[in-house]
Amino acid sequence: MLRLLRKIHRYAYVASVLFFFALGYPFLLLYARSAHKNYNKIVSFRKWISVAGMYAVGIRVQVNFETPVDWTQTYIICPNHTSFLDISVLTFLCKTPFSFMGKEELLENPIARIFFETIDIPVKRDSKISSFKAYKKALEILHDRKSLVIFPEGKIDDNYPPVLHPFKPGAFRLATDYNIAILPVVIQDAWKILWDDGKKFGSQPGVIHVNVLAPIETKALGKDNVMQLEREVYNKMKDSWDLYNKS
Global pTM? Predict the structure, then answer.
């Protein structure tokens, strides 16, 4: 019975997101014609669709900040990744416009497609040409003083319950090359509410707890310290993850 209820809740969540997306779609199509000019408006609509879709089915977000975050600063935001809800959590969290870098397959998603064709960055993992184009697009966004979300694990892993997996270096190379601060974000409960895309276990109402760790400045590191930065961010996020999940 519990699994059936979770399946029903997942259908309700998908329907909720589709409903709010349908309401905003005519405006998104209009803004997409001049995506750079309407960047902030597209970001705002994405936030409205994502957050309304969650809250309509009883999913809430509670954020704890290790230190106050200066949202006027540009960040490379590095969250862990266990759920499709992570995208909605980040739209709830961030107070200023930002872009996602994500897998190219999201262009096949009927909701994500319009965002990855306009304000976000699709990347094909095994293509050097795609990675180079994504890197250039990321630089444009950062030079425009907009933040960028990169999931350093690279994907949602197949393991359940999830753990924090080793990071890929891309986010940290960008950060050290261009002196961009890293903002580590640990999303704790999204996998309990909806793991991966929810097809296997469904979903349920609940509260997603988020720990935003102190920003890590990179100006003093230099370009040769990518691995040092990667280890520092990983260790801080793993400590936060382990402490929460052992309590």
Answer: 0.95
Q: What is the Cα gyration radius of the chain? A: 18
Q: At 244, is the secondary structure helix, strand, or coil?
A: helix
More confident residue, 50 or 126: 50
Binned at pLDDT 50, 70 and 90, residue 247 comes out as low
Residue 73 per-residue DSSP state: S
Nearest-5° Cα angle at 175, 174 to 176:
95
Count the neighbouring beta carbons within 10 Å of the beta carbon of residue 72. 8
Q: Is 135 exposed, middle or buried (0-12, 13-18, 19+ CB in 10 A)?
A: middle
CATH number at residue 127: 3.40.1130
Range of the domain at 28: 2-246
Residue range 195-213: mean pLDDT, rounded: 97
Q: Are 197 and 84 in contact (CB under 8 A)?
A: yes
Of the candidates 220, 221, 210, the residue with the CA atom closest to the CA atom of residue 185 = 210
What DSSP element (H or E) covers 76?
strand 75-79
Give the Å distances, CA to CA, from 189 to 8, 38, 39. Answer: 20, 33, 30
Total tally of structural domains belonging to the chain: 1
Q: Is the separation of the CB atoms in 62 and 208 below 8 Å?
A: yes
pLDDT (tens digit per residue) in 72-89:
999 999 999 999 999 999
User: How is residue 119 written in tokens?
Assistant: 């304000």
Answer whether 163's CB lies under 8 Å from 214's CB.
no
Paired residues of 83 in beta bridges: 196
